[in-house]
Amino acid sequence: MVKKLYPLVTVVLLLPLTLTAEVYRTVDEHGNVTYTDSPPADQNKVERVEIQPGPSAESISDTMERNRAIRKAMEEAQEKRLEKSTARKDRVSKAEQEVEEAEKQLAAMEELGDDDRQQLQGGKSYIRPEYFERVKKAQRELDEAKKRLKKIRGY
């Protein structure tokens, strides 16, 4: 059995040596450059070209693994950015709704009702202080809602 494997191992070990061919570069009298694997008859303008071996299988495997890891990290980062963007849009939308509600509330509070006037003798009337307090409170709530929206938007 070992005797049968010996020629096979020898061939496998010597195979890479036979696959490495030499490359020659020649320039003719007109300046034309030719590359060939056998040396031409005119040895005057012949130059042997060293060809670097390609990457090893291990190097290719490492590079592919590194590329996979980079691609995965990019996809994860993109997902996080998308999640943050969606969450931010949701927060902005909610803050905008709060501003709209506060504006509606302020408009409703600014309307004078029958209870907001106090009648005096002689037909005169004045607006009760509670009305102004109610409007100020609604205005403060609107201002706070606008500040929250501005903060969320980032300006």
Automatic annotation (TrEMBL):
Where is the secretion signal located?
1-21
Q: Which UniProt keywords apply?
A: Signal
**Sorted alphabetically, which InterPro entries does this protein's record hold?**
DUF4124
Q: What's the superkingdom here?
A: Bacteria
Domain DUF4124 spans what residues?
12-59
Which residue ranges have biased composition labelled Basic and acidic residues?
75-97
Does this UniProt record's set of keywords contain Signal? yes
Disordered as annotated region, ranges: 75-129
Q: What is this protein called?
A: DUF4124 domain-containing protein
Species lineage:
Bacteria, Pseudomonadati, Pseudomonadota, Gammaproteobacteria, Chromatiales
